[in-house]
Amino acid sequence: ESKNKYLWTEAQHQENRRAVLRIDKKISSQPCHSVRKYDSIDFKHPADGQIIKAPIYFDFDKPKIRIDGIEYLKALAPKLAKLDSFLVIVEFHTDCRSSDAINMNLSQRRADTIVNCIKKYAGKTLMIEGRGMGEQCVVNECNCEGSLKINNTHYLPDTVNGTVIYHGGLDPVKDFAIVSGDVLVPCSEMEHQRNRMTVIRLVKRKF
């Protein structure tokens, strides 16, 4: 018989108010060794894997380098041109806003722009290439676009009928909640800026 004919006890209601942690999609938060292994290039004693985190910035959603970045590259390019035994790789990283595809495309365009600027001011031909890294290498610990971080792994919430739903926690009343992505602590603009970085890396050439 249908249980709808009966009045439910509080214990039965409580049984339905259960907390469930559902993790259906996962964004891997892999370390980026090229970003974290070194923090400078020793031009007197260059080595494979050395990097510079270059202060090169762009206006929102544009591939054009700001004036201060151009001045920085003017000074850097001749030094890079002297490193004949190395391939120079320019990596541009975006913040985690917007889609993966858009960020990958934007980062490649910006990396190519930086490469062209270095070539322009190098004074000689050098081995150099640009790599768009998109949002693969976030460097801060804030939540982005409503992702949930557990044990250094980012998880996306469920979306049901256009509403973001998070399941989990010990309190079935408080933690079974329907919230918007903005409710989670978002990355600040400064934290987003830290992710929008240019990394210039040396790779020893094999002759």
Q: How many H/I helices?
A: 5
CATH structural fold name of the domain at 31-135 and 188-204? 60s Ribosomal Protein L30, Chain: A
Oligomerization status of the protein chains:
single chain
SS class: alpha+beta
Give the terminus-to-terminus CA distance.
Answer: 81 Å
Number of beta-strand segments: 10
The Rg value, from CA coordinates, equals 24 Å
CATH superfamily of the domain at 31-135 and 188-204: OmpA-like domain
Average per-residue pLDDT, rounded, comes to 73
Write out the strand line-up for the largest beta sheet, numbering strands in chain order: 2-10-3-4
- Give the CATH class of the domain at 31-135 and 188-204: Alpha Beta
- Major sheet summary line: 4 strands, mixed
